[in-house]
Specification:
Layout: E1 5-6, H1 15-40, H2 43-49, H3 59-76, E2 79-88, E3 93-100, H4 132-147, E4 152-158, E5 162-165, H5 173-182, H6 196-209, E6 216-223, H7 231-243, E7 247-253, E8 262-264, E9 270-273, H8 286-296, E10 300-305, H9 315-320, E11 324-330, H10 332-347, H11 349-363
Parallel strand pairs: 3-4, 3-6, 6-7, 7-10
Antiparallel strand pairs: 1-2, 2-11, 4-5, 8-9
Helix pairs in contact: 1-3, 3-10, 6-7
């Protein structure tokens, strides 16, 4: 991760001149004030009513002036910090998100990681909340889309078969909200079961239909590992992914435990749990996903979306590689403000000392 840096680091060389000059001017001023006090009257009497003026007592003032000058020079050097998020370069990527919408994605592994809704804590929200598909949509909308704005994006839903939705603008947030609310839903794909091979096949076919053959191609697969297809079809799609040089990011969704699928009444009350057929499970089958990663090779990556809903991943760099843009946040204004604040404190020092002296005289 990039850290704070300077746009004009050579400006710091000014410190070699301005710091000694500041010390010289301060010392000259100190000597003049010292001489004025000596002319004002006997030192013993003057010191009774005012704070003694010594080099040692003025060191803090000198440090303050050096800090002001140093901060101003530092501001002139142009400090900048990377501003999140890092984004992929516009026009360099074709990204297809492939997600499972089978019944196992109704399991609410992520209810505890969801935000409050309508003033209610997640565990008190009526009806479905925190499902696996809920969290997939949050990751896509809040993390992936901001990282790939200005690039092509498509989404594929799958169960036993798959359905693809065409490219849509990554910066049209109203359209995106409508799409995720009305299209990306449990059961909104043909067939039964759960076969990620079907989703991958549709994504590969979509890339083949695209006229932009020179763009970086990336598939982001969201799956709980369910796989009901044949090994032969799996190998075919792996070969196609390699042939087209597609980058594959696999996100494991869910937990290793067999989480029950809740069922609700129309008013949102829990009425029971879905009965699974013999041999069915809702547990995350990581073995299927890591085996897919290993079969694809170096251009594949597997990450786990754990119960805390945190992914240790930089989406822009993962999806775009070196084709990223790091926005910068100038900090010179904040540094100048700090210098001016310190300058104000130094300027008011004399007034504060006078008020303190008057207060002491009244008490005496």
């Amino acid at each position: 991760m990039e850290s704070l840096h300077l746009a004009r680091p050579d400006v710091l060389m000014w410190l070699l001149a301005v710091l000694p000059a500041t010390i010289a001017f301060w010392f000259f001023g100190f000597r003049m004030r010292k001489a004025a006090r000596d002319r004002f009257g006997e030192e013993r009497l003057v010191n009774r009513n005012t704070k003694p003026l010594t080099l040692k007592s003025e060191m803090l003032v000198l440090a303050g002036w050096l800090s002001v000058v140093g901060l101003l020079v530092f501001a002139a050097a142009g400090p900048v910090a990377p501003a999140a998020p890092t984004t992929a370069q516009s026009g360099t990527l074709q990204v297809i998100a492939v997600t499972d919408v089978s019944q196992s994605m109704r399991a609410e592994d992520y209810r505890g990681a969801m935000p409050d809704k309508d003033g209610l804590a997640p565990d008190l929200v009526p009806g479905p909340y925190g499902t696996r598909l809920d969290m997939v949509k949050i990751v896509i909308q809040k993390e992936i889309l901001p990282a790939v704005q200005g690039n092509e994006f498509e989404i594929v839903l799958y169960m036993g078969n798959s359905v693809a939705f065409p490219d849509f603008p990554t910066d049209d947030f109203q359209t995106l909200e409508w799409i995720f609310k009305n299209w990306v839903r449990i059961g909104n794909a043909p067939g039964g079961g759960s076969d990620f091979v079907e989703g991958l096949k549709e994504a590969v076919a979509s890339f083949k239909r695209s006229p932009n053959q020179n763009m970086e191609r990336v598939i982001v697969l969201f799956s709980d590992g369910g796989y009901t297809g044949s090994q032969e079809e799996l190998q075919k799609v792996i070969d196609e992914i390699k042939k087209l040089d597609i980058r594959l990011v696999i996100v494991g969704v869910g937990t290793p435990e067999n989480v029950p699928i809740p069922e609700y009444s129309p008013t949102g009350e829990l009425t029971g749990y879905k009965k699974l057929k013999e041999g069915q499970s809702t547990a995350l089958l990581e073995g299927n996903l890591t085996a897919l990663r290993d079969a694809v090779g170096d251009k594949a990556e597997y990450v786990l979306l754990g119960p805390d809903a945190k992914l240790n991943i930089n989406w822009a760099r993962t999806l775009a590689g070196s084709k990223t843009e790091q926005r910068e946040n100038p900090l010179d204004g904040y540094v100048v403000l700090a210098a001016l604040s310190l300058l104000l404190i130094l300027s008011l020092r004399g007034s504060a000392s006078g008020l303190l002296g008057s207060f002491r005289k009244r008490r005496q």
